[in-house]
Design a protein that fits this description.
238 residues; alpha/beta; 5 strands
Length: 238
Amino acid sequence: MANTEQTPFAKRFRGFFPVVIDVETAGFNKETDALLEIAASVLKMDDEGLLSIDHTVHFHVQPFEGANIEQAAIDFNGIDPFSPLRGAVPEDEVIKEICKVVRKAQKAAGCQRSVIVAHNAAFDHGFLNAAIERNNIKRTPFHPFVSFDTTSLAGLALGQTVLAKACRAAGIEFDNSQAHSALYDTERTAELYCLIVNRWQQLGGWPLAPTDDCDADAETDSEVETETKNDEDAKTSE
């Protein structure tokens, strides 16, 4: 896609579409421990280039067959994995629906690949990747390893790395009694991410000053397209 055809959203993150994710799990091992809850907030950008939450999808997830459940983990998050009141959905259906929602929003934003935004992103990204692989989902919009971590961003912008403290420092209301719900934590993380990105723009950090390298944007577009093609080729050959 030529630079003149890019949407402002695509230009902002070199063709990437940030999606805010939070998971609640039955342990710390992405390969063996159950994914119990997941939420994803997709973002929108207004005419001034400011980000906000568009909408959020949220699911309670049935533990996959043979999944390990650590008692300490469910004591911490307060989830009863086998309660019929949860309305839990099979893991494969959940991941397919999230991919469908994200892919649609990514396309509408004119972006070519989605990137997970999360607080301590390696954890959430790892569990999502494990679920994608476990359910043999070949067509996924998510970049396999790139993520945007609000822990680091909040440490830089606000001097705080704990989600609750970072939100309060940013003037975002945070209710500890609702924390450790994937839906609540996702939306607070999304608000935090949008605030930091928007504040950077308002301080003059974006857009970047023009450079003499007229080919830079074209090279960036090519890199994103190549990464996407390589990932698709790798999945096809599996």
